[in-house]
Amino acid sequence: MGRCLELAQMARGCTAPNPLVGCVVIQGGVVVGEGFHPGAGQPHAEVFALAQAGAAARGATLYVNLEPCNHTGRTPPCTEAVIRAGVARVVVGMVDPDPRVSGSGIQRLRQADIEVEVGVEEAACQRLNEAFVHRVTHQRPLGLLKYAMTLDGKIAATGGHSTWVTGPPARAAVHQLRATCDAVVVGGNTVRQDNPRLTSHGHSPHNPRRVVMSRHLDLPAQAHLWATEAAPTLVFTTPVADPVRHQALVDQGVEVIVLPTLTPQAVSQSLYERGCAAVLWECGGQLAALALSDGVIDKVWAFVAPKLVGGPAAPTPVGELGIRRMDRAIALERTTWHRVGDDLLVEGYVEDVPQT
To answer: What is this structure's pTM?
Structure first.
């Protein structure tokens, strides 16, 4: 099962709205077939592994980190491929939460007299596909808020300079994180002040969609994000936006989407409809606060650098939330701490946002 998880991660960031799946076929203690699902619309992991195994799949054991599908979507059901191959035993990491599958794949295999074992390395399988599971069960993407701050909670100096808060290892970790996500969201201020690229910077061939939220399209005429050969860029705006700037962005290959009301929740919903499972919010404090208040942030990656800036004027990672009492603060659960170079990474899941 560990090898299934390794194989599945080879397509990280490329499969949404589908899950990450790896498969291994073993005959007589020897691996005779391996495969992983490369992306939506392409064959599933089981198909690749069974094709590699060929005749050796008959009487073999098939390992897969997610329950085989039992419905016809863009590809035929994997259960039928497993049955036709003559596999004797199937070991499943976790049940698929998709209601189109959700136990029916396991049931179909057992009806065909195939021995099925479920729940091997289930926790690791759940972690690998947490964005897929969240998308299916909540009908919206998993939202991750990432920021880097000094030890005294500042994301930039008093003059706005923010390059660089953390060291190279932490920045590399962020580039790797982007490669696992389907979209990365910033506000107009980030584009104006930082001119980011929002790519994986060569750490992966996959770059996420770059997403900008701007009510009036008061954005620079030239920016790295408008170079859409690296990755597609979407700009969400409102009906009051400058039509000249709108057309100028379209002429550069940027997709501009007009929403009646520009909110994090509306953007998250639109990205869900486009198939996104993991959305990374790399925005400034004001937009981060709006995203938290809108309930679209589920997980936080907070890098803490051993530096001090001081002063009330220096910006902080999260803007005003209207919280007047410490017992109403938004808490993180299931937290972990990692050292990344000279910096610390705090990772945790957001509890329900309290009503203030």
So the answer is: 0.92
Q: How far apart are CA 132 and CA 137, in angstroms?
A: 9
Q: Which residues of 168-190 are buried (b: 16+ CB within 10 A; e: fewer)?
A: eebbbbbbebbbbbbbbbbbbbb
Q: What contacts 24+ positions apart, CB below 8 Å, involve 74-77? A: 74/40, 74/41, 75/41, 75/42, 75/43, 75/44, 75/47, 77/105, 77/108
| 241-276: pLDDT as tens digits | 999 999 999 999 999 999 999 999 999 999 999 999
Distances (CA, A) of 237 to 132, 192, 317: 27, 16, 23
- Lowest-pLDDT range of 97-101, 115-119, 148-152, 297-301: 97-101
- Our measurement of the distance from residue 296's CA atom to the centroid of its chain's CA atoms, rounded to an integer in Å, reads 13
Annotation says 46 is catalytic: yes
CA distances from 320 to 265, 290, 304, 315 (A): 18, 9, 20, 11
Please say whether the beta carbons of 181 and 144 come within 8 A: yes
Catalytic residue among 34, 46, 67, 121: 46
As a whole number of angstroms, the distance between CA 322 and CA 292 comes to 12
Q: State both tokens at 250.
A: 């379209």
